[in-house]
C-alpha cells in the first residue's frame, strides 16, 4: 500500500488502535480520540482507513466516520473546528429523498441577523449524542448550503432517537422555525453541493475500510470455529468442501481490501475518477459482505443465528454499511453515468 504513511507508521498505528480496542467493553469516543491523539488525523483519509478497519475488526461502536467527515467539512468551510473528543455528525438524508442531494427539501431563510430552519432529516447517526450537527438545506438563493447547529438548543427542534439494525444510535430531526445565529452558515451560501459530494466519497472510503475489518474478522472467526467443531471424529475444517468455501471467503475479503484501497488512492484524483473508484469499491464490498456474512453464518451452523455469538452482529453492521450515504443501485447508476 502506498500513501502518506510509511509501512512502519501504518503498522504502528494499526497496532495502537488494535491494542486499545482489544481491551473490550464499550469504548467511549472521547477516551478513544484522546488516547489515540486524534486531531489532524481526522482530516487525512489514509490513516483514517487504518483506524476504521480496526474499528470494524473489533466491531467497536464508535462514530469515527461521522466525526471525521464533519471535521473535514468544517475545515474545508474554514469554520471553527471542534475538539476531536467531541461527537459530531452530518444531517442530509430526508424521508423519501433516497440518495440524491438535489432532492433535499429542508429550507433555511434569513430572519433579522440570523436564520430560521425548517425541514426533516432522517437516520442521522449519533445525532442524540452529538455536540454539533451539520445540516444541509436550501438557503434563500439557489443551491445547497451547510449550517452548523447545536442540538442542545431544542427550541423548534424535535429529535427522536432510536437504534438501527446494527445497534448504532440514530435519530430523526424535525426543524420547525428553528432559530440559528448568523454564523451558523458555514462555507459559501448555495455552494455546498460539490463539498457534500466529496464528503460522501470520503465517508464511504472510511466505511469501506470498516467493512473490510468486519469481513476479515468474520473469516477469522469462521476458520477458528470450523477448526474446533468436530464431526465424524475430526474437525469440520478438514472437509474439503468447507475448505473451498473458506477459500472463496478469503478471495472476497482480498477483493474488498483491494477495492477499498483503490478508493483511498482516488481521493486526490478528479471527481469522476474518485466517484468511479468509490462506487466500484462499495459495490464490490456489498457483494463481498453478503457472501462472507452468509457463509460465516452457515458454517457456524445454528450457533451462527444466535445473538450470543458475535457473527450475526458483524453481519448486521456490514448490512448497515451497505446503505449508508448510498446503496448498490445508486452506485451502479453513478458508475454508468460517468
Cα distance spanning the termini: 27 Å
Shape: elongated
By CATH's scheme, which homologous superfamily of the largest domain applies? Butyryl-CoA Dehydrogenase, subunit A, domain 3
Strand content: 15-25%
In total, the number of domains comes to 3
Strand/helix succession: HHHHEEEEEEEEHEEHHHH
CATH architecture heading of the largest domain: Up-down Bundle
Structure description:
By secondary structure, the protein is α+β, with helices and mostly antiparallel strands. The protein folds into three domains: 7-76; 88-190, Butyryl-CoA Dehydrogenase, subunit A, domain 2 (Beta Barrel); 194-337, Butyryl-CoA Dehydrogenase, subunit A, domain 3, CATH 1.20.140. The chain is built from nine helices and ten strands. The strands form three sheets. The protein has a four-stranded mixed sheet, covered by helices on one side. Strands 2-3-7-6 form a four-stranded antiparallel sheet, with no helix packed on it.
Amino acid at each position: 500500500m502506498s500513501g502518506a504513511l510509511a509501512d512502519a507508521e501504518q503498522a504502528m498505528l494499526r497496532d495502537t488502535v488494535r491494542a486499545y480496542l482489544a481491551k473490550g467493553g464499550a469504548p467511549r469516543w472521547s477516551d478513544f480520540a484522546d488516547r489515540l491523539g486524534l486531531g489532524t488525523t481526522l482530516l487525512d483519509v489514509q490513516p483514517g482507513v487504518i483506524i476504521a478497519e480496526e474499528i470494524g475488526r473489533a466491531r467497536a461502536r464508535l462514530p469515527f466516520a461521522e466525526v471525521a467527515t464533519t471535521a473535514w467539512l468544517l475545515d474545508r468551510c474554514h469554520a471553527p473546528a471542534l475538539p476531536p473528543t467531541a461527537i459530531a455528525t452530518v444531517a442530509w438524508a430526508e424521508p423519501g429523498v433516497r440518495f440524491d442531494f438535489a432532492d433535499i427539501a429542508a429550507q433555511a431563510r434569513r430572519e433579522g441577523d440570523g436564520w430560521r430552519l425548517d425541514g426533516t432529516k432522517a437516520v442521522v447517526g449519533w445525532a442524540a449524542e452529538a455536540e454539533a450537527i451539520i445540516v444541509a438545506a436550501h438557503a434563500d438563493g439557489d443551491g445547497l448550503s451547510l449550517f452548523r447547529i447545536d442540538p442542545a438548543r431544542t427550541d423548534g427542534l424535535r429529535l427522536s432517537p432510536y437504534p438501527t439494525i446494527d445497534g448504532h444510535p440514530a435519530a430523526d430531526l424535525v426543524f420547525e422555525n428553528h432559530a440559528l445565529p448568523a454564523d451558523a452558515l458555514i462555507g459559501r451560501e448555495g455552494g455546498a453541493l460539490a463539498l457534500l459530494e466529496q464528503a460522501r466519497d470520503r465517508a464511504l472510503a472510511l466505511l469501506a475500510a470498516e467493512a473490510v475489518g468486519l469481513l476479515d474478522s468474520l473469516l477469522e472467526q469462521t476458520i477458528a470455529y470450523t477448526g474446533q467443531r468436530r464431526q465424524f471424529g475430526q474437525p469440520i475444517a478438514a472437509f474439503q468442501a468447507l475448505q473451498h468455501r473458506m477459500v472463496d471467503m478469503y478471495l472476497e475479503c482480498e477483493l474488498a481490501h483491494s477495492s477499498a484501497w483503490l478508493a483511498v488512492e482516488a481521493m486526490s484524483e478528479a471527481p469522476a475518477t474518485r466517484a468511479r473508484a468509490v462506487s466500484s469499491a462499495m459495490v464490490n464490498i456489498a457483494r463481498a459482505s453478503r457472501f462472507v456474512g452468509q457463509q460465516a453464518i452457515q458454517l457456524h451452523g445454528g450457533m451462527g443465528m444466535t445473538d450470543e455469538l458475535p457473527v450475526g452482529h458483524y453481519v448486521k453492521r456490514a448490512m448497515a454499511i451497505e446503505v449508508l450515504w448510498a446503496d448498490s443501485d445508486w452506485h451502479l447508476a453513478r458508475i454508468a453515468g460517468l
